[in-house]
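A reminder before we start the practical. When you read a complex entry, don't treat the lines as separate problems. The point of joint prediction is that each chain is placed relative to the others, so the output describes one connected object in space. Small molecules and nucleic acid strands, if listed, are placed in the same frame. In the example below there are two entries. Take a minute to note the order of the lines before looking further.
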Amino acid sequence: DVKVTQSSRYLVKRTGEKVFLECVQDMDHENMFWYRQDPGLGLRLIYFSYDVKMKEKGDIPEGYSVSREKKERFSLILESASTNQTSMYLCASSSNRLRGADTQYFGPGTRLTVL
Amino acid sequence: QKEVEQDPGPLSVPEGAIVSLNCTYSNSAFQYFMWYRQYSRKGPELLMYTYSSGNKEDGRFTAQVDKSSKYISLFIRDSQPSDSATYLCAMRFSGGSNYKLTFGKGTLLTVNP
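Here is the predicted structure of the whole assembly.
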Protein backbone atom coordinates (compact mmCIF):
# COMPACT_ATOMS: atom_id res chain seq x y z
CA ASP A 1 0.00 0.00 0.00
CA VAL A 2 1.17 3.49 -0.83
CA LYS A 3 1.70 5.56 2.22
CA VAL A 4 1.95 9.32 2.39
CA THR A 5 2.62 10.67 5.83
CA GLN A 6 2.56 14.21 7.10
CA SER A 7 4.51 15.35 10.12
CA SER A 8 1.59 16.72 12.12
CA ARG A 9 -2.19 16.34 12.11
CA TYR A 10 -2.76 19.60 13.99
CA LEU A 11 -0.50 22.61 14.34
CA VAL A 12 -1.00 25.98 16.03
CA LYS A 13 1.44 28.80 15.24
CA ARG A 14 1.73 32.52 15.87
CA THR A 15 1.67 35.20 13.21
CA GLY A 16 5.17 35.80 11.86
CA GLU A 17 6.53 32.38 12.80
CA LYS A 18 8.35 30.25 10.26
CA VAL A 19 6.44 27.02 9.75
CA PHE A 20 7.65 23.75 8.24
CA LEU A 21 5.24 21.09 7.03
CA GLU A 22 6.86 17.79 6.13
CA CYS A 23 5.59 15.09 3.81
CA VAL A 24 7.11 11.66 3.16
CA GLN A 25 6.03 9.01 0.64
CA ASP A 26 7.27 5.44 0.50
CA MET A 27 6.49 4.44 -3.11
CA ASP A 28 9.39 6.00 -5.00
CA HIS A 29 7.01 8.44 -6.71
CA GLU A 30 8.49 11.10 -8.94
CA ASN A 31 5.80 13.72 -8.35
CA MET A 32 4.83 15.35 -5.12
CA PHE A 33 2.27 18.09 -4.44
CA TRP A 34 1.18 20.50 -1.77
CA TYR A 35 -2.45 21.67 -1.67
CA ARG A 36 -4.51 23.69 0.70
CA GLN A 37 -8.18 22.95 1.18
CA ASP A 38 -10.64 25.57 2.38
CA PRO A 39 -14.45 25.46 2.66
CA GLY A 40 -16.04 26.81 -0.50
CA LEU A 41 -12.71 26.99 -2.33
CA GLY A 42 -11.85 23.32 -2.67
CA LEU A 43 -8.36 21.98 -3.26
CA ARG A 44 -5.88 24.53 -4.52
CA LEU A 45 -2.40 23.61 -5.68
CA ILE A 46 0.40 25.53 -3.97
CA TYR A 47 3.53 23.91 -5.40
CA PHE A 48 4.52 20.67 -7.01
CA SER A 49 7.76 18.86 -7.71
CA TYR A 50 8.43 16.38 -10.51
CA ASP A 51 11.94 15.45 -9.43
CA VAL A 52 14.48 16.01 -6.68
CA LYS A 53 15.38 19.69 -6.40
CA MET A 54 12.81 20.54 -9.10
CA LYS A 55 9.71 22.57 -8.28
CA GLU A 56 7.00 24.48 -10.05
CA LYS A 57 4.51 27.00 -8.77
CA GLY A 58 0.93 25.96 -8.59
CA ASP A 59 -2.09 28.24 -8.51
CA ILE A 60 -1.45 29.98 -5.17
CA PRO A 61 2.32 29.98 -4.37
CA GLU A 62 2.44 33.42 -2.71
CA GLY A 63 3.67 33.24 0.87
CA TYR A 64 4.98 29.69 0.49
CA SER A 65 8.16 27.98 -0.56
CA VAL A 66 9.10 24.32 -0.91
CA SER A 67 12.10 22.06 -0.66
CA ARG A 68 12.75 18.64 -2.16
CA GLU A 69 16.23 17.44 -1.28
CA LYS A 70 15.34 13.73 -1.36
CA LYS A 71 12.90 11.90 -3.61
CA GLU A 72 10.70 10.71 -0.77
CA ARG A 73 10.41 14.02 1.10
CA PHE A 74 8.69 17.28 0.14
CA SER A 75 8.56 20.17 2.56
CA LEU A 76 6.27 23.19 2.56
CA ILE A 77 7.60 26.33 4.24
CA LEU A 78 5.63 29.32 5.41
CA GLU A 79 8.36 31.95 5.79
CA SER A 80 6.23 34.25 7.96
CA ALA A 81 2.88 32.73 8.84
CA SER A 82 -0.21 34.90 8.55
CA THR A 83 -3.78 34.32 9.72
CA ASN A 84 -5.00 33.89 6.15
CA GLN A 85 -2.80 30.79 5.92
CA THR A 86 -4.98 29.01 8.45
CA SER A 87 -6.14 26.00 6.46
CA MET A 88 -5.99 22.26 5.89
CA TYR A 89 -2.77 21.36 4.06
CA LEU A 90 -2.68 18.18 2.02
CA CYS A 91 0.36 16.52 0.52
CA ALA A 92 0.08 14.07 -2.38
CA SER A 93 2.36 12.00 -4.58
CA SER A 94 2.00 10.28 -7.94
CA SER A 95 3.99 8.16 -10.34
CA ASN A 96 4.81 8.85 -13.99
CA ARG A 97 4.48 5.16 -14.79
CA LEU A 98 1.59 4.04 -17.03
CA ARG A 99 -1.49 6.05 -16.07
CA GLY A 100 -0.01 6.53 -12.67
CA ALA A 101 -0.04 10.26 -13.01
CA ASP A 102 -3.79 10.31 -12.50
CA THR A 103 -3.68 8.58 -9.18
CA GLN A 104 -2.54 11.03 -6.59
CA TYR A 105 -2.11 9.47 -3.17
CA PHE A 106 -2.90 11.88 -0.41
CA GLY A 107 -1.69 12.15 3.13
CA PRO A 108 -4.11 12.65 6.03
CA GLY A 109 -3.62 16.41 6.07
CA THR A 110 -2.31 18.96 8.56
CA ARG A 111 -4.81 21.36 10.09
CA LEU A 112 -2.79 24.56 10.59
CA THR A 113 -4.13 27.40 12.72
CA VAL A 114 -2.26 30.70 12.72
CA LEU A 115 -3.17 32.97 15.63
CA GLN B 1 -15.77 31.04 -16.05
CA LYS B 2 -14.05 28.59 -13.74
CA GLU B 3 -12.30 25.65 -15.35
CA VAL B 4 -14.26 23.07 -13.36
CA GLU B 5 -17.67 23.65 -11.77
CA GLN B 6 -19.15 21.30 -9.19
CA ASP B 7 -22.27 21.82 -7.09
CA PRO B 8 -21.10 21.78 -3.47
CA GLY B 9 -24.40 20.45 -2.15
CA PRO B 10 -24.91 19.33 0.52
CA LEU B 11 -26.81 16.38 -0.87
CA SER B 12 -28.79 14.20 1.53
CA VAL B 13 -30.42 10.94 0.37
CA PRO B 14 -31.99 7.89 2.02
CA GLU B 15 -30.14 4.59 2.06
CA GLY B 16 -30.70 2.66 -1.16
CA ALA B 17 -31.20 5.75 -3.34
CA ILE B 18 -29.44 6.32 -6.63
CA VAL B 19 -27.08 9.27 -6.35
CA SER B 20 -25.97 11.44 -9.26
CA LEU B 21 -22.98 13.74 -8.88
CA ASN B 22 -21.87 16.04 -11.67
CA CYS B 23 -19.16 18.38 -12.89
CA THR B 24 -18.95 20.66 -15.88
CA TYR B 25 -15.75 22.00 -17.35
CA SER B 26 -14.79 24.67 -19.83
CA ASN B 27 -11.52 23.46 -21.39
CA SER B 28 -12.05 20.90 -24.14
CA ALA B 29 -8.39 19.84 -23.86
CA PHE B 30 -9.11 17.81 -20.72
CA GLN B 31 -8.76 14.14 -21.64
CA TYR B 32 -8.58 12.21 -18.37
CA PHE B 33 -11.30 12.34 -15.76
CA MET B 34 -11.33 11.10 -12.22
CA TRP B 35 -13.52 10.99 -9.15
CA TYR B 36 -11.97 11.16 -5.72
CA ARG B 37 -13.76 10.41 -2.45
CA GLN B 38 -12.82 12.18 0.76
CA TYR B 39 -14.06 11.05 4.14
CA SER B 40 -14.17 13.54 6.96
CA ARG B 41 -10.72 14.37 8.36
CA LYS B 42 -8.99 12.21 5.74
CA GLY B 43 -7.17 12.87 2.47
CA PRO B 44 -8.94 12.22 -0.87
CA GLU B 45 -8.61 8.77 -2.48
CA LEU B 46 -9.11 7.84 -6.13
CA LEU B 47 -12.47 6.20 -6.75
CA MET B 48 -12.96 6.10 -10.53
CA TYR B 49 -10.91 6.90 -13.60
CA THR B 50 -12.02 7.34 -17.21
CA TYR B 51 -10.26 8.38 -20.39
CA SER B 52 -12.08 10.55 -22.94
CA SER B 53 -15.80 9.90 -23.48
CA GLY B 54 -17.78 6.90 -22.36
CA ASN B 55 -18.85 4.98 -19.30
CA LYS B 56 -16.97 2.97 -16.74
CA GLU B 57 -18.55 0.76 -14.12
CA ASP B 58 -17.07 -0.55 -10.88
CA GLY B 59 -19.49 -2.30 -8.57
CA ARG B 60 -22.12 0.20 -7.47
CA PHE B 61 -20.28 3.11 -9.10
CA THR B 62 -20.56 4.31 -12.70
CA ALA B 63 -18.56 7.18 -14.15
CA GLN B 64 -19.77 8.88 -17.33
CA VAL B 65 -17.99 11.38 -19.54
CA ASP B 66 -19.70 13.42 -22.24
CA LYS B 67 -16.97 15.44 -23.90
CA SER B 68 -19.34 17.06 -26.39
CA SER B 69 -21.22 18.64 -23.48
CA LYS B 70 -18.12 19.01 -21.26
CA TYR B 71 -19.99 17.16 -18.54
CA ILE B 72 -18.99 14.28 -16.28
CA SER B 73 -21.09 12.29 -13.84
CA LEU B 74 -20.71 9.77 -11.07
CA PHE B 75 -23.65 7.52 -10.26
CA ILE B 76 -23.89 5.54 -7.05
CA ARG B 77 -26.47 2.74 -6.99
CA ASP B 78 -27.95 1.32 -3.79
CA SER B 79 -26.24 4.04 -1.77
CA GLN B 80 -25.02 3.12 1.71
CA PRO B 81 -24.31 5.23 4.82
CA SER B 82 -20.63 4.38 4.26
CA ASP B 83 -20.82 6.36 1.00
CA SER B 84 -21.26 9.55 3.05
CA ALA B 85 -18.27 11.67 2.05
CA THR B 86 -17.20 14.58 -0.13
CA TYR B 87 -16.81 13.64 -3.79
CA LEU B 88 -14.32 15.57 -5.88
CA CYS B 89 -14.10 15.46 -9.64
CA ALA B 90 -10.67 15.95 -11.19
CA MET B 91 -9.30 16.12 -14.70
CA ARG B 92 -6.09 16.64 -16.60
CA PHE B 93 -4.74 17.37 -20.04
CA SER B 94 -2.96 14.88 -22.23
CA GLY B 95 0.77 15.50 -22.57
CA GLY B 96 2.78 18.42 -21.21
CA SER B 97 2.51 18.77 -17.44
CA ASN B 98 0.30 15.74 -17.40
CA TYR B 99 0.76 15.11 -13.72
CA LYS B 100 -1.17 18.21 -12.69
CA LEU B 101 -4.84 17.67 -11.88
CA THR B 102 -7.57 20.29 -11.81
CA PHE B 103 -10.12 19.58 -9.09
CA GLY B 104 -13.74 20.59 -8.63
CA LYS B 105 -14.66 22.01 -5.22
CA GLY B 106 -16.39 18.82 -4.12
CA THR B 107 -19.95 17.76 -3.30
CA LEU B 108 -20.79 16.73 0.25
CA LEU B 109 -23.02 13.63 0.26
CA THR B 110 -24.86 12.22 3.26
CA VAL B 111 -26.65 8.87 3.00
CA ASN B 112 -29.15 8.46 5.83
CA PRO B 113 -29.91 5.00 7.26
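Discuss with your neighbour: The longest strand of chain A covers residues 42-51. What might explain this?
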